[in-house]
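Extended Data, panel c. Modelled sequence:
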Amino acid sequence: VQSFTEGCAANDMVPGARLVSRTVVAATHKDAAFFGVEPGCELIVVERVRTADGIPVMLENNAFVLADHPYLQTLADKDLTDNSIFALVAEHSGRAPLKSDPCTVEIALADAQAAPLLEVPVGEPLFYMEAYFTDAGGRPLLLGRQKIVGSRYVFDI
């Protein structure tokens, strides 16, 4: 698994991140099944706009089990700005995403919330990617739901 930060570096671009929100939500049945927790368990969802050379490319939504990653709720905003969340998780937990299974990509339209954050018109086609990341031990680590501006991002499959 290559992080957004690593992908930008590999393409000689400067990665950036701007925190949009950090919220605690109750795990749905589907999310709880992936994480191996009870439905209703607290998840922390970190939403950020990811940029490449200052241009918005992705609206990133990453969910973690709060009990496993409490530092994500208490880190100052600057610690989540212009940083790789994969690197922060690895630094604080010793765990890094190794693979994503399953990972789906479909087309979605930019809504009134995503469009201004990504600096695209409402209705702009976006890639919507849902990825279930596990660590080296096969343990669930994070669930990513990303909206990606297709004209600004290339997938290498």
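The helical segments are 4-10, 29-35, 71-74, 77-80, 85-93, 114-118. This feature is highlighted in the accompanying rendering.
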